[in-house]
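Blinded run. Sample ID left blank on purpose so nobody reads anything into the name before looking at the predicted structure. Input follows.
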Amino acid sequence: MSFSIRDDGEITIVHVDGELIVGNRQELKSNVLERLELGDRKFLIDFSDSSYIDSSGLGVLVSLSKKIREAGGALRLAGLNEDLRTLFELTKLDTLFQIADTRAAALSDF
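Blinded prediction complete.
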């Protein structure tokens, strides 16, 4: 799994390629928190090239959401496939996160 981070104006886009699991969740968390400390406040995590998120990955997303909100920021998710969308619905996390079908839709929502 790999991450790529880039700025699209005032929005930080994190692209997740592969699975978000216990072995790499800390890398995502530290990268986003570093950007938060540098002053970034709007984040989009794009899962269009990801097929699996385990419970520790979900935990990191919840933790990041809380920290970003506490800093006055916003977090959006995009590109969840059908299985990931179902996971968020079953865990009721779809009520915590704003989820868009595409990156473009999420960007226009900020």
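Unblinding after everyone has recorded impressions. The first strand starts at residue 2 and ends at 8.
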